[in-house]
Amino acid sequence: MSTAEEPTRVVVVTGAGSGIGRATLDLYLDRGWQTVAVDIDPTGLADLADHPNVATVIGDVASERTNTEAAKAALDRFGRLDAAVLNAGYGGGGPLEAPGALDRLAEVLSVNVIGAAAGIRATAPALRASGGGAIVVTSSVSGLRGDPSTWAYNAAKAAQINLVRAAAIDYAAENIRINAIAPGGTVTAMTRAQVEHPTFGATIARRIPLGRWSQPGEQAEAIHFLTSPAASYITGTVLSVDGGLSANGG
Ligand code: NAD
């Protein structure tokens, strides 16, 4: 609920059609925010077409145009922007010497790293116009370490973290806080095959001190926290939301 003194806050969420992004979008809506939902695949946003507090943008986050459209949608439809959750991403791996491996690397870097940089570029002017704001990039525990046959994703997720640190310094004077979360294994479309594998899912769970995979809503809570006034002195950091995996040496 907004008051004359406190306008309804507005957030852009990318990768909002599934998994962590959809849980994040739903959480912001539950907490009274207005939202711009961005995804390359319209399927997961179809049920939101007539939602009064959702504007949708269908496009690739690696393209500057999609990000510009998202920031414009926030201003045109809701009149301001307070936060951006740059969450769209995916992995890719396989042997480094496999055919097409460098093309896969370029693709994974493009969605995760160019996507996050383009998202910061496009939303910063609207955040500045609001007197400041917050950006959260969904990195991964895979950005903090190496995993077997996951080099492209490891490289991209690590690059996101240092992008966040550097951008946080550049934008701090304008009160635009920029942080990352590093989720551990979370039950989404991206990981469903692993979770449902007869042994793999349970093997991973045993390595996690809390003993289980994360649910997307648990990642959404951390993201929301980082964009809230409660996190007003937090910028340039990476918040692990991994059930203690990194505390346990990864
Ligand atoms: P998901 O597959 O459920 O959702 C990803 C969404 O992003 C999909 O709706 C997809 O259509 C969209 N998307 C993909 N590429 C896009 C692009 N180029 N432009 C716009 N939208 C695009 O996966 P998820 O697990 O919710 O992943 C969300 C983020 O969390 C990703 O950045 C992922 O790397 C990260 N992450 C996931 C896990 C996990 O275990 N699930 C762990 C750590 C980090």
Describe the structure.
The protein is an alpha/beta fold and 250 residues long. The protein is 40% helix and 15% strand. It contains seven helices and seven strands, in the order βαββαβαβαβαααβ. It has helices at 19-30, 64-78, 101-129, 151-171, 192-196, 200-207, 216-226, and strands spanning 10-14, 34-39, 54-58, 83-86, 133-138, 176-183, 238-241. Strands 3-2-1-4-5-6-7 form a seven-stranded parallel beta sheet, sandwiched between helices. Helix 1 packs across helix 7 (216-226). The longest helix has 29 residues, at 101-129. The radius of gyration is 17 Å and the shape is globular. The model has no long low-confidence stretch (mean pLDDT 95). The structure holds nicotinamide-adenine-dinucleotide. Residues 14-15, 17-21, 39-41, 44, 60-62, 87-90, 111, 138, 140, 183, 185-186, 188-191 line the site of nicotinamide-adenine-dinucleotide (NAD). The site of nicotinamide-adenine-dinucleotide has 28 residues, from helix 1.
List the helices and strands and how they pair.
Elements: E1 10-14, H1 19-30, E2 34-39, E3 54-58, H2 64-78, E4 83-86, H3 101-129, E5 133-138, H4 151-171, E6 176-183, H5 192-196, H6 200-207, H7 216-226, E7 238-241
Parallel strand pairs: 1-2, 1-4, 2-3, 4-5, 5-6, 6-7
This protein binds nicotinamide-adenine-dinucleotide.
